Structure formats: structure tokens, C-alpha cells
Amino acid sequence: MKREYQHWFSHRLEREMELLVFGHGGAKVLVFPTRDGRFYESEDIGIIASVAHKIEAGQLQLFCVDNLAHETFYCFWRHPAERIRRHILYEEYIIHEVLPMMDAMNDHYCRIAHGCSLGAYYAANIAFRHPHLFRKLAAFSGRYDPTESMADFNDLFDGYFDDNIYFHSPLRFLAKLECPMILAELRRMDILFVIGREDPFHDNNMRLCRILDDKRIPYRLHEWDGRAHRGRYWRQMAPLYL
Question: In order of start, what are the domains of the chain with their CATH numbers?
């Protein structure tokens, strides 16, 4: 399997950013890590190995990006307004630096946003905000409103709320989305969620699905037994749903 390390200094983020690329062709998968994960997380927890047959067959090429969660949502010494602004810069890095690099390496028409846990939020947020850039969303074990508290997961903005947070909270902005062009783009996207029935984010996923139903946006939902919020489950999900 072809494995390539990439890195460059991002002037948007004012720091070095790293990523790993697996494969030589096929649909391009933008892979976001979990909260504490890095760009090598998918390799470390066995997700790459679980889809190696698809990568080696040229069906998928995975681009595993690095994480700024501890400079954004989990950077609790920053004011919440600064946390979300830092996240916006991260999204701009993805759109204006990573996606062009992906396209330069691979001209396949299909681009997939994928992640697990916080990575699922990253993937869903960017795909719902920019649906013209993606053909598919595959989100495993995600929470889609970072302002909500549930179980051991707290509001990531400590009760603070502004327009930037609103437009990066899919449960909120999708509910009021009326733009016909954006809705048309969302309706042509292949949207897929996987969640454990005992996962603390299960209700969050159900509410998001109801919003998509109201907007007539097709999606697929797969519910797994138990919590299903660990690497050993994601290793099983990846070859089924990517």
C-alpha cells in the first residue's frame, strides 16, 4: 500500500501542519481524527488496515489530517469566541490548502468527508456547510451540536453563544436552512450516520435525522448495539460504510 507523509507551514494557522495519505487512486476520503487523535490515528487504531483491500484496489485514497481540538473546542483557557474563531481558521486550512492538495494528487470526482466521534462532527460540519465540495459524508459516533451537554460531555463553549458558533452547529443551522441551492446540493449527497444505541450522542443523531427528514434530505442511519464508541467498532464500520 502506498503511504505518503505530507507537511507544510500553514500561514492561515501560523503553524506546521501534517497529514498522511494512503493509496494511489479512487474516491478521495478526507479523514478527521477524534478529540485526542493526530493525523496518524486511523493507522494506529487499525482503520487503515480494515480498508486496506479497498485502498490497494484503487477504490479509496485516504487523506488523514491533523487535529486542532486542543487549540479550539478543548482549549479552555481561551475565550469561547476565540475558540470558534480558531476553528474557523482550521476549516479554511482544510478548504483552501488540504482540498487543493488532494485534487492535485487525485482527479477522481468523488470526495468523501469522514470521521469518528469529534472527527464525525468535523466531517459533518464541513460537508453540511459546503455540500458542493463533497459527494458523501460518513460520520461515526458523532455529536452535531457542540453547545449541548450530555452524560460526561459538556458544552464546549461554557454557555457562550454567537453567530460563529451557530453556523458551526449543524443541529442549529440546518433546522433553519432555506436556501434552495444549498438544499439541492445536500439532497444529492450520500449522507450516512452510524451510532450505537447506548451512545450518549444517540439522541443527538436522532434529532439531526428528524431535521433532515423535515428538509427532505435523504440519509442512511445505521444503529449498532451497545455504545459502539471505540476503535474496535470503528474498525468494523469502516469497510462496511466507506
Answer: 3-241 (3.40.50.1820)
51: phi then psi, degrees, rounded to nearest 5 = -115, 20
- CA distances 6 to 3, 9, 40, 114, 168, Å, are 10, 11, 12, 19, 27
Q: What is the DSSP string of 35-60?
A: TT--TTHHHHTTHHHHTHHHHHTTSE
Q: What is the mean pLDDT of the chain?
A: 97
- Name the residue with cell 458542493: 132
* CA-wise closest residue to 189 among 145, 133, 125, 233: 133
Could you identify the residue written with the cell 455529536?
143
The tens digit of pLDDT for each residue in 47-83 reads 999 999 999 999 999 999 999 999 999 999 999 999 9
What's the pLDDT score for residue 150?
86
Determine phi and psi for 143, rounding to 5 degrees.
-115, 130
State the Cα–Cα distance between residues 172 and 6, nearest whole angstrom: 35
> Model pTM?
0.97
Strands 111-116 and 27-32: parallel
